[in-house]
Design a protein that fits this description.
Number of domains: 2
Structural class: alpha+beta
Strand order of the largest sheet: 7-6-5-10-9-8
CATH architecture of the largest domain: 2-Layer Sandwich
Radius of gyration: 20 Å
Order of helices and strands: HEEHHHHEEHHEEEHHHEEEH
CATH superfamily of the largest domain: GAF domain
Low-confidence stretches: 1-13
Shape: globular
Number of helices: 11
Largest sheet: 6 strands, antiparallel
Strand content: 15-25%
Length: 277
């Protein structure tokens, strides 16, 4: 997995102790530990769709050799980050992650500030509201309030999707610099998820420019058929994207709202969150 250090360092140049400039590859080679990257890769292999994995399945998903992988999973089991079912020989995420996740939830200024603001949108509309972040070359949901309506366009915490598809992802992608976007399009293959997914790079760049200018993104059935989303990015003072917030509505119900009403709701929430960060 590629870690985009520019998301954390902004436009600042990475430098070593001697003050010499480094690129991202040099930084990762000299100042990061591959063993830690691999251990994290093991943890990230689990998902809502695949909460339990055998050693062979982990090998296929991570590409880590079996002998090294056995040492990684044994260590993670020992530390409580993985649990091994002795009957099935399958692994699942351990309870130590639950405690760490609780600490993040309690101490994260983003979540602490955003939750009551998004709860008001959820109370007013009854629609799903979520927070998303950039995770490598994907969008990952880190918080979600479910709809109160019987018909729903559901998302869930932990879900990932490509950055080029859907409003919640594209409003994050639009915040990257032109150089970062060019690098992204060079390494990522644009594969259609639905027949509404934009996979032409020039057309996508044009839309990202519009999103950047207007401050929000809209999508219909672009990633999930039948789902409508209005999203905006939460920006740091450096104008780097911290997260995106989204209202997700089934297309069958979206006509109950005016588009302007939904845009105003999400932009108002954005301003409230950014003022408090």
């Amino acid at each position: 997995m590629v870690i985009n250090l520019k998301l954390f360092y902004g436009n600042k140049k990475l430098v070593n102790r001697q003050g010499e400039k480094m690129d991202q590859i040099t930084f990762q080679k000299n100042y990061t530990m591959q063993s830690v990257h691999k251990a994290i890769h093991v943890l990230r292999a689990f998902s809502k769709e695949q909460p339990r994995l055998s050693l062979t399945e982990l090998h296929k998903k991570t590409g880590i050799g079996i002998s090294s992988l056995q040492r990684f999973v044994s260590t993670l089991v020992y530390e409580g980050f993985l649990h091994k079912d002795e009957k099935t020989k399958e692994y699942q995420l351990g309870l130590s992650l639950l405690y760490l996740g609780y600490l993040v939830e309690q101490e994260s200024s983003l979540l602490t500030i955003s939750k009551p603001i998004l709860q008001r949108i959820n109370d007013e509309t009854g629609e799903s509201v979520c927070i998303n972040i950039i995770d490598g070359d994907e969008r990952r949901c880190i918080f979600n309030l479910d709809t109160t309506h019987p018909l729903s366009a559901k998302t869930f915490v932990g879900h990932t999707s490509p950055l080029y598809a859907g409003a919640s992802a594209k409003c994050l992608l639009a915040c990257l610099t032109d150089q970062e976007l060019n690098e992204y399009f060079e390494r990522v293959q644009l594969i259609p998820i639905t027949n509404q997914t934009i996979i032409d790079v020039d057309a996508l760049k044009k839309e990202l420019t519009a999103i950047r200018s207007q401050g929000y993104a809209l999508s219909r059935s672009e990633r999930v058929v039948g789902a409508y989303s209005v999203s905006t990015a939460i920006l740091l003072p450096t104008n780097r994207p911290l997260a995106s917030i989204s209202i997700v509505i089934p297309e069958a119900r979206v006509e109950q709202y005016s588009e302007r009403q939904l845009i105003d709701l999400i932009l108002s929430a954005k301003l409230q969150i950014e003022r408090q960060l």
